[in-house]
Write a structure and sequence with these properties.
The chain has 63 residues and is an all-alpha fold. 37% of the residues lie in helices and 0% in strands. The protein has helices spanning 17-23, 26-41.
Length: 63
């Protein structure tokens, strides 16, 4: 990936990105999503491998 190339566009400007990504297979979209997640969380609390899943079980009182 070339990190030196980028463009600045208006949010009101139409883009072909949506059409492009909808044509891509799910596996490619998921890889791109994981890539963006890794970049976002790279130095954020050391969550580079995976986000932690938290599970707690609540006991319901009987009436």
């Amino acid at each position: 990936m070339n990190k030196k190339v980028f463009s600045i566009v208006s949010l009101k400007e139409k883009s072909d990105d949506t059409k492009y990504w909808r044509k891509q297979p799910v596996s490619k979209r998921m890889k791109a999503l994981e890539f963006l997640r890794t970049i976002l969380y790279k130095d954020y609390h050391g969550a580079t491998s995976r986000l932690q899943r938290v599970l707690s079980i609540a006991q319901q009182k009987t009436r």
